[in-house]
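Hypothesis: this fold can be encoded by more than one sequence.
Test: take the structure tokens below, design a sequence, compare later.
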């Protein structure tokens, strides 16, 4: 019965989504370099690919964003040749297009899915886009290890009003389940979002990561990268 209920509530979802987009604060992407060569030790070619969260929306500088926090934990053990490819609003399909022309990497960190939820990408299409992206990372860019961040549980973000939050939450769970299946097929590591998205973790828009969440996320991803490479 849920699809019928969603169909009946579609005008409500649309109205709430438009109102939300009209009032939500548009935060900029973090400033700072998006590639570099830093640290000492065995070389690690690192790609971070994704949407606004990968781009560092929610903090002022890349040093406090995902890329900077990963580097903080990697450069003591590795020489990291890193490249950030990210854009606010990017879907999985768009991220694959953004990747064209880039070189080879050892580890790829993916931060995608929120915009697929917001654009109501079908699960089958999302799975296909994720699978194609991961296959391209391996075949064309030499990536051995893929760390895929979970689709955040948007239904738990208080910034969304009801019943829109319930609809987005359901969609996010469905897409993340699809992502987990693709990760199993592609020998990638699915990294769950297991923190309650409370205000202490989020930026002032109550939607994007704040500095504490980026710090935790970066530390976790760096540790998983080193673990996979060991």
């Amino acid at each position: 019965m849920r699809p019928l209920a969603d169909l009946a509530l579609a005008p409500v979802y649309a109205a709430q989504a438009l109102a939300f987009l009209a009032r939500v604060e548009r935060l900029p992407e973090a400033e700072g370099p998006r590639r570099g060569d830093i640290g000492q030790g065995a070389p690690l070619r690192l790609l971070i690919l994704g949407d606004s969260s990968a781009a560092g929306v929610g903090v002022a500088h890349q040093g406090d964003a995902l890329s900077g926090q990963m580097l903080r934990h990697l450069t003591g053990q590795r020489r990291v040749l890193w490249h950030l490819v990210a854009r606010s609003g990017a879907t999985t399909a768009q991220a694959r297009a953004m990747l064209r022309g880039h070189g080879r990497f050892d580890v790829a960190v993916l931060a995608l899915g929120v915009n697929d939820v917001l654009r109501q990408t079908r699960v089958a299409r999302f799975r296909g886009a994720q699978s194609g992206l991961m296959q391209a990372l391996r075949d064309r860019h030499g990536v051995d290890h893929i760390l895929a961040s979970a689709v955040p549980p948007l239904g738990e973000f208080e910034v969304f009003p009801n019943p829109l939050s319930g609809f987005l939450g359901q969609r996010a769970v469905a897409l993340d389940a699809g992502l987990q299946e693709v990760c199993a097929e592609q020998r990638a590591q699915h990294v769950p979002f297991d923190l309650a998205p409370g205000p202490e973790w989020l930026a002032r828009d109550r939607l994007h990561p704040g500095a504490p969440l980026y710090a935790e996320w970066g530390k976790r991803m760096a540790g998983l990268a080193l673990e996979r490479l060991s």
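The chain has one domain: 2-19+30-229. The two ends are 48 Å apart (CA to CA).
Hypothesis status: open.
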